[in-house]
Specification:
four-stranded mixed β-sheet; Endonuclease, Chain A
Length: about 130
């Protein structure tokens, strides 16, 4: 049973990487892809898939569409967030509209959250945007 679930998660994460939402694609290609330290798209953590994950900082970035705020998903979303926090992860959440209407503000928030997270961890991690 557990092995089947793992395969399903891997397949689902691959599918989500190959067919990202417009907002995930925009944030990835215009910003996160060139940010150091490196982020990974559609990362499996436990039995959950997160949109973007930086393993060096245990920082998760979630781009939330309407489904995340439906009442029938509230228990799942709460359980998921609690689990991710028990793994030492910090979660940044953005609405789709944040990406579509104010990408620069979103990028600034991510940048300073990365800097702050590195300080929280006491890690010597420099946050840089590479030129590509």
């Amino acid at each position: 049973m557990k092995k089947d679930l793992t395969h399903e998660l891997v397949d689902r994460a691959r599918e989500m990487r190959n067919e990202p939402t417009a907002e995930e694609s925009k944030l990835w290609h215009l910003y996160l892809k060139n940010l150091e330290p490196r982020f990974i798209r559609q990362k499996i953590i436990g039995f959950y898939i997160v949109d973007f994950y930086c393993p060096r900082m245990k920082l998760i970035i979630e781009i939330d569409g309407e489904q995340h705020y439906l009442e029938e998903n509230a228990v799942y979303e709460k359980r998921r967030e609690e689990y991710l926090k028990t793994q030492g992860c910090k979660i940044l959440r953005f609405y789709n509209s944040d990406i579509n209407k104010s990408l620069k503000d979103t990028e600034t928030t991510i940048y300073y959250s990365c800097v702050e997270r590195a300080k929280e961890l006491g890690a010597d991690i420099s946050v840089e945007l590479s030129e590509e």
